[in-house]
Amino acid sequence: MTDINEKYRNDPELDEPSIKPRTAIVPGSFDPVTLGHLDIIRRAAKEYDEVYAVIFVNPKKTYTFSLSDRVRMLMLATDDIDNCLVSYSSGLVIDYMRDHGIETIVKGYRNDADYKYECEMAEWNKKMGGYDTVLLPASEALTEVSSTKVRELIRSGGDLTGLLPEAVIEAIRSL
């Protein structure tokens, strides 16, 4: 006699469909990664199965920190986010997404100027790659945090508390 549970367990028509994980990318230069960046990554990680925090290198831009230092700091900052993968690329965001099967771009904005710029980029990424962008407003406590301001504080020896993750502050001190 066949066990009824065994029959249904082996019936391919009753198998649950394979569900593709929802994936997102949080792109940036992360020079350095701030609490604002980390907040956006954490919020994305709550909504998506896999989040790629990817450092994009622009050859026309001068960076304060080397790529290897930025990768290390981003890894330190996201160490406790189990579904976050840190990577880097010198290509386009849409090419990286296509190559890695990523579905959605997640970006943060602090003010109207950021929002306008990110909307323009979202339109471009949709037109060129067919990818949607989710724009998240900065958490109220982090609206004034920017990598530019942080770099100025680093150069002048200012206090970075409340602007960068503690592990990133320690990493900067060790450089």
Structural descriptors:
175 residues; Rossmann fold; 5 strands; 18% strand; disordered N terminus
Please list the strands of the largest sheet in the order they lie side by side: 3-2-1-4-5
Proportion of residues in helical segments: 40-55%
CATH architecture: 3-Layer(aba) Sandwich
Derived structural class: alpha/beta
In angstroms, what is the radius of gyration?
A: 20 Å
| Pattern of helices and strands | HEHEHEHEHEHH
> For this structure, what is the CATH homologous superfamily?
HUPs
The dominant shape is globular
Number of strands: 5
At the fold tier of CATH, the topology name is: Rossmann fold
Report low-confidence residues grouped into runs of 5 or more. Answer: 1-10
The CATH class is identified as: Alpha Beta
Mean pLDDT: 92
Can you offer a commentary on this structure?
- The chain is built from seven helices and five strands, in the order H-E-H-E-H-E-H-E-H-E-H-H.
- The protein has a five-stranded parallel beta sheet with strand order 3-2-1-4-5, with helices on both faces.
- The protein has helices at 4-9, 35-47, 67-77, 93-100, 112-129, 147-156, 166-173, and strands spanning 23-28, 50-56, 84-89, 104-109, 132-137.
- It is an alpha/beta fold.
- Strand 4 (104-109), helix 5 and strand 5 form a beta-alpha-beta unit.
- It has one domain (19-173): HUPs (Rossmann fold, 3-Layer(aba) Sandwich).
- Mean pLDDT is 92; it is low at 1-10.
- Helix 3 packs antiparallel against helix 7 (166-173).
